[in-house]
Amino acid sequence: MASSFRILSVLAIALAICVQGTLGEIACEHLDQDTCAYAISSAGKRCVLEKRVKRTGEEAYTCRTSEIEADRLRNWIETDQCIKACGLDRKSLGISTDSLLESRFAQQLCSPQCYYSCPNVIDLYFNLAAAEGVFLPKLCEAQEGNARRGLMADIKSSGFVAPGPVKYTVAPAPVEPVKYTVSPAMSPYYN
């Protein structure tokens, strides 16, 4: 039994290498629903799985190229080991920050098996978190220290709080705008 599993595993890996070698480059539109999610095209764009309902009522899944670019990664189909270690699902539709609000998902994403072994996944969620005003290493640090409630509130509010109204007895002086230059944050794999 174990030897036939090994033979099947070797054949599956050989087939994957052969197909990728034959195709040369990954085009999201050519991927099936079992390889689409968390894949990156040869152009460096992330692939997303989408579901549509046919006129017959039957569900159909298609893979398409998103506008989201991966940092320094190309021609990548995420491994089953990373999908499992990071608590992901191959049938994930689209790309969203919603999963970062789930404690169980954040724990798996921040686990050493995922965080230090799956650069594609960490790059994706690093950028998604940054778009919400959250620094992924801080989120993971909070997971370790069990102090995630404050960071989760930051995610929900994007970390910005508007000041309350101010009453003036005298007209305020004009306020000059402040110009800030912010460097983009980089995923821990590329620093």
UniProtKB/TrEMBL annotation:
<dbReference type="Pfam" id="PF06521">
    <property type="entry name" value="PAR1"/>
</dbReference>
<dbReference type="InterPro" id="IPR009489">
    <property type="entry name" value="PAR1"/>
</dbReference>
<feature type="signal peptide">
    <location>
        <begin position="1"/>
        <end position="24"/>
    </location>
</feature>
<keyword id="KW-0732">Signal</keyword>
<protein>
    <recommendedName>
        <fullName>PAR1 protein</fullName>
    </recommendedName>
</protein>
